[in-house]
């Protein structure tokens, strides 16, 4: 269903990625001063990952794991969607924890764990794919880079006392 939507509207993934790249550091800077909110939004950002990777499907798995290494391009809509899937949670976890490298490692390891579950649980109707891990990891790198920019901006231009009444 989602793949059909993305194929019908190939502009959607690049637009979402552009919004994340442009808006991510701004939102991250705002969330830097609100770590509880950042953690809450982070938890919500995990829901699409769980729904798109671990919810069982009626599909019969013909091969457990595919080994392929293709870099995402705007024409490969599923690969671009896999990149986008991991940008928000890594960005949010990095801003909330103020540790972009730890969030990046968490995103890469989390993606590998998802692929391992898919490989070991064929009843899910999902097959693991090294390309999914690669593209999720690229998204995690982008998320960590955006978080680094947000953290840098928050420290460079701290919020002013009196603008929100709280510090």
UniProtKB/TrEMBL annotation:
Signal peptide: none annotated. The keyword Membrane applies. It comes from the Bacteria. The chain crosses the membrane at residues 12-32, 39-59, 79-96, 101-121, 133-154. It holds the Pfam family VanZ. The lineage of its organism: Bacteria, Bacillati, Actinomycetota, Actinomycetes, Micrococcales. InterPro entries: VanZ-like. This is VanZ like family protein. Keywords: Membrane, Transmembrane, Transmembrane helix. Residues 54-148 form the VanZ-like domain. The keyword Transmembrane applies.
């Amino acid at each position: 269903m989602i793949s059909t939507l993305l194929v019908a509207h190939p502009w959607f993934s690049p637009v979402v990625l552009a919004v994340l790249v442009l808006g991510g550091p701004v939102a991250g800077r705002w969330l830097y001063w609100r770590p509880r909110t950042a953690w809450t939004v982070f938890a919500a950002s995990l829901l699409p990952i769980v729904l798109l990777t671990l919810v069982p499907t009626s599909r019969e798995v013909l091969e457990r794991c595919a080994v392929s290494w293709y870099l995402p391009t705007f024409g490969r809509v599923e690969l671009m969607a896999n990149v986008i899937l991991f940008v928000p949670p890594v960005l949010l976890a990095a801003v909330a924890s103020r540790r972009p490298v730890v969030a990046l490692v968490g995103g890469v390891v989390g993606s590998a764990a998802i692929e391992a579950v898919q490989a070991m649980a064929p009843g899910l109707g999902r097959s693991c794919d090294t390309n999914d891990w690669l593209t999720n990891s690229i998204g995690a790198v982008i998320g960590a880079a955006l978080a680094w920019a947000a953290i840098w901006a928050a420290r460079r231009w701290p919020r002013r006392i009196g603008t929100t009444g709280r510090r």
